[in-house]
Protein: Diacylglycerol kinase
Amino acid sequence: MVARFTRWLLCLVGAALIGFAAFYFITKPAPFPESHWAGLGDPDIKNGEMVFWAGGCTSCHAAEKATGDAKLVLSGGLALKSPFGTFHVPNISPDEKAGLGAWTLADFGNAMKRGVGKGGEHLYPAFPYGSYSRMTDKDVNDLWGFLKTLPKSDNVAPPHELPFPFNIRLALGGWKFLYFNDQPRVVLANADDKIKRGQYLVEGPGHCGECHTPRDAFGGFLNGKWLTGAPNPEGKGRIPDITPGSKAVGSWSASDIANYLETGFTPDYDSAGGSMAEVQQNIAHLPASDREAIAAYLKVVPSH
Structure:
């Protein structure tokens, strides 16, 4: 009897170990090899600055309520509250100890496009690599070049405050297995170059869906609900539906949307508020052609 129980227990332990090994193999961090980032050449700093504004880097990584040149000091520290705990935004200034000064392009690129940190660990998707995965390698290289021109900060952000089991990074591999990919969020037939550019900006560096798309209990986007509005991550109200069928902007023309992104004023002369005010100020740095491209995409994205 004892021998039978021992064999059963050993089989159970063996099965558990095999299952864990299979889970880890499927969900382990998967950075690009160093060779992936070779041969990109010198970064285009001017384009890198445009990518910086499109990505809204300063909105999370600058000190809270920073203005003027202080918005370019990416010292981190902002606390992002979520149903999974509080995330503290890191310092991404060129400081060698507190920031990214000791990182390589490969380190940065793998964080941006694969959600893998310098130490080979999974990153939490509070950092929107789920959107940044759609960025071109050139834009990542150019952004990296621009970030290295910015002021250094020695501020060290506190660690995340996450309860069990969300503090187990290994589980993030399962989240990536379910939700992470670099494919277009929507498939648009007969899209012209302007719409394709708008799709790239909205779905990639602009990461608009991170706030405007509802999520399931595990934090993944709900299928078929792209840009249809979601609870405000700051806790009050809702982030609006911005598809063509929405009450908020469905009646706006492409020109209305482009003007709003430039000036912050709606067709009714209301103004952008809340976190959108800062998003609009970032997008206002982009060339008019990019704002027009975003508007063109938003006018053809499917409504639900």
In short: The chain has a mean pLDDT of 88. The beta strands are 79-82, 85-88, 230-231, 238-239. Residues 2-27 form the longest helix (26 residues). Residues 259 and 292 are 9 Å apart (CA to CA).
